[in-house]
Structure prediction request, 303 residues.
Amino acid sequence: MHIQDILARRRPSFSFEFFPPKSPAAWDELYAAIVELQAYDPSFVSVTYGAGGSTRDATHDLVVRIKETTDIPPVPHLTCVGHSEEEIDAILSRYAEAGVSNILALRGDPPRDWPNYDWSDCAFPYAEDLVRFIKRFNDSGRHPDERGFGIGVAGFPEGHPGTPNRLLELDHLKAKVDAGADYICTQLFFDNHDFLDFRDRCRLAGIQVPMIAGIMPVTSTKGMRRMAELAAGARFPAKLLRALDRAGDDPAAVEKVGVHYAAQQCVELLDHDVDGIHLYTLNKSGATREIYASMGMAPADVG
Prediction:
């Protein structure tokens, strides 16, 4: 199902993100989580793509498995890093043949063992270039849906770490949308004001596509530090830090605080007419199910 139809079917949308596991046991655990979360009738699920295409086949295998064995539309991530036009064309052809209808187009980060990666030599220096290439693929008529792939792009409510100039950042985002993006899914954030202000600034800049808010619950102090490392510039509000400090070294208490905080974020976003909420699951169903429960939503309530 094309993302335009998915987002028109239910507003706000609710979606989840998974990443390809590295071991057979982890695959089993992930699939058990997917089956549990299917009961919540997600609008779609996205599947991440490793730096430099390091999980290319695993991403494809997970996407196809979800498509063939569940009723959930999968949205694979695709990044610019280290790919030629021929490689991206082959990946898009493979997804089109499998009946996958949507792509999240990202610039991505070079692998850590590529410290001197030269973007000027890349076939796709920016996500805008990848979006434009996907649109050309769509125009070629090689996808079974006459509209081709639905295309998503990333937004950064707290600011893109590579673009300190916030006005220029919006110019880059608008360029991605103008190149053919159908929706925006944001990076994680912990202060809803950052998202709401970002949304308002996008509308003022003429960016009118649906904007889905990315929420990641803190489930451990180690995980929070990992978030801070991966999402450069992520702000952890004092309100959240105080609550986590009260939880101390009790892992269960830390997770309870994180889930409650994320649920409160979701409630406030729903009150502010958000287009959709995208939960970063870390391949587990527990925190996501608890967030739904904290919002007063059971599986039957979201179908």
